[in-house]
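Milestone M4 deliverable, item 7.
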Amino acid sequence: MAKYLSQELVCKSFERLSSRNKTGKTHMERTSALMYFLSVDAAFKHFDVSILDLNPDSFDGKNNRKQVELEFTKLVLVGNSHGVVKQVTELGRIEEAGTHPEKRISSNFLTVPLKKASNQTTPFNYPSRPCPLFKMGLASTGTQWGVSFHDNWMPNFLAILTTIKGSTPSLDLAVFVCRDCGIDDVAADIFSALEEQLKKKFTKNLADFWIQRMEKEKVMYRGVDVPFSDHHAPFASIYKQPPTPVKQYEQMNKSELIARIHHLELKLATKD
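Output delivered:
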């Protein structure tokens, strides 16, 4: 019989993944890069490859893109009911409404940097700040629309996590990523449960590296009294959202602001 990570456990880990800075969009940018990275690695695992051809005009490329979109959606979508999409655009925060995750990654990662890389004859790395996780394009991967991991992805992965306020980012990120996983009832503790799930979801290189980082964080980890539950329940339904900074609204375009206002008006009308 399967068991699941408890809502309380996921909520606490997710809150610790929040930004240590109260202003700016650095944490949001790094969250996007991190989620793209995990999505691509999960696709590597699915297809048993180390380079993905994401050519939008080829049969294989279209299939590969769909898989990356699916993996990204599973990572960031935390709720979808009555037409309201709840998703993570920044670790530690949940956004309601906005662009659907599948469209987000398609119009951002799978279009802007990837298309630019496909037209370059020199090596192309992404993201440019704080450091790259991917190499793209013909000069870097041998395939025009190819994507693979940057040679220094391990230290760069850790650098991406430096905006997180908690002291156990690898463990808390693993909890968030595995929040919906069915865990074998024989799992002895939260650590062995997470290790098992990471090995199932990601490539051996990433899973082994991630588990090594988790081992170093164990001594500082603050769990909960009851880490498992017999039933799955989405953590977003009980997560206490931090106050929304004005900066988030400043980054929205007109249509996103209208959608947000409409959603808030509906909530107010429902309360009345």
